[in-house]
Amino acid sequence: MSFDLRSITVYLFGLALLLLAARVLKKPIGWAFRFLLSCILGVAALFAFNLIFRKFGILLPLNPFNAVTVGVFGLPGFALLWVLSVI
Questions:
Q1: Cβ atoms of residues 77 and 70 within 8 Å
Q2: Cα distance between residue 42 and residue 61, in whole Å
Q3: N or C, which end of the chain is more exposed by having fewer CB within 10 Å?
Q4: Model pTM?
Protein backbone atom coordinates (compact mmCIF):
# COMPACT_ATOMS: atom_id res chain seq x y z
CA MET A 1 0.00 0.00 0.00
CA SER A 2 1.59 3.20 -1.11
CA PHE A 3 0.69 6.60 0.21
CA ASP A 4 0.61 9.32 -2.35
CA LEU A 5 -0.24 12.95 -1.76
CA ARG A 6 -3.88 12.47 -2.75
CA SER A 7 -4.60 9.68 -0.23
CA ILE A 8 -2.82 11.57 2.57
CA THR A 9 -4.94 14.63 1.79
CA VAL A 10 -8.14 12.58 1.89
CA TYR A 11 -7.18 11.02 5.25
CA LEU A 12 -6.33 14.42 6.75
CA PHE A 13 -9.60 15.89 5.44
CA GLY A 14 -11.55 12.97 6.96
CA LEU A 15 -9.76 13.37 10.28
CA ALA A 16 -10.52 17.10 10.29
CA LEU A 17 -14.21 16.39 9.62
CA LEU A 18 -14.29 13.83 12.42
CA LEU A 19 -12.73 16.28 14.89
CA LEU A 20 -15.13 19.03 13.79
CA ALA A 21 -18.14 16.72 14.26
CA ALA A 22 -16.90 15.71 17.72
CA ARG A 23 -16.50 19.34 18.72
CA VAL A 24 -19.94 20.35 17.38
CA LEU A 25 -21.75 17.40 18.98
CA LYS A 26 -20.03 17.66 22.36
CA LYS A 27 -22.71 19.82 24.03
CA PRO A 28 -25.79 18.03 22.65
CA ILE A 29 -24.37 14.65 23.63
CA GLY A 30 -23.67 16.00 27.12
CA TRP A 31 -27.23 17.30 27.40
CA ALA A 32 -28.65 13.98 26.22
CA PHE A 33 -26.49 12.10 28.73
CA ARG A 34 -27.64 14.33 31.60
CA PHE A 35 -31.29 13.96 30.52
CA LEU A 36 -30.94 10.17 30.36
CA LEU A 37 -29.29 10.14 33.78
CA SER A 38 -32.08 12.25 35.29
CA CYS A 39 -34.68 9.89 33.79
CA ILE A 40 -32.93 6.88 35.32
CA LEU A 41 -32.82 8.66 38.68
CA GLY A 42 -36.52 9.48 38.27
CA VAL A 43 -37.32 5.79 37.79
CA ALA A 44 -35.31 4.91 40.90
CA ALA A 45 -37.02 7.65 42.91
CA LEU A 46 -40.49 6.52 41.82
CA PHE A 47 -39.65 2.92 42.65
CA ALA A 48 -38.43 3.90 46.13
CA PHE A 49 -41.46 6.16 46.65
CA ASN A 50 -43.83 3.33 45.77
CA LEU A 51 -42.02 0.93 48.09
CA ILE A 52 -42.22 3.35 51.01
CA PHE A 53 -45.74 4.73 50.55
CA ARG A 54 -47.44 1.52 49.40
CA LYS A 55 -48.50 0.92 53.03
CA PHE A 56 -50.43 4.21 53.03
CA GLY A 57 -52.18 3.53 49.71
CA ILE A 58 -50.27 6.23 47.80
CA LEU A 59 -48.89 4.87 44.53
CA LEU A 60 -47.55 6.70 41.51
CA PRO A 61 -47.43 4.61 38.32
CA LEU A 62 -43.99 3.84 36.97
CA ASN A 63 -44.06 4.95 33.31
CA PRO A 64 -41.81 7.06 31.06
CA PHE A 65 -43.86 10.26 31.51
CA ASN A 66 -43.68 10.05 35.30
CA ALA A 67 -39.98 9.17 35.23
CA VAL A 68 -39.18 12.21 33.08
CA THR A 69 -41.37 14.47 35.25
CA VAL A 70 -39.71 13.35 38.49
CA GLY A 71 -36.24 13.26 36.94
CA VAL A 72 -36.43 16.76 35.52
CA PHE A 73 -38.47 18.56 38.19
CA GLY A 74 -37.51 16.60 41.33
CA LEU A 75 -39.68 17.15 44.40
CA PRO A 76 -42.10 19.52 42.62
CA GLY A 77 -42.50 16.76 40.02
CA PHE A 78 -43.54 14.34 42.76
CA ALA A 79 -46.04 16.90 44.05
CA LEU A 80 -47.42 17.47 40.56
CA LEU A 81 -47.90 13.76 39.93
CA TRP A 82 -49.52 13.24 43.30
CA VAL A 83 -51.96 16.11 42.71
CA LEU A 84 -52.77 14.74 39.24
CA SER A 85 -53.37 11.27 40.66
CA VAL A 86 -55.74 12.65 43.32
CA ILE A 87 -57.77 14.65 40.80
A1: yes
A2: 12
A3: N
A4: 0.66
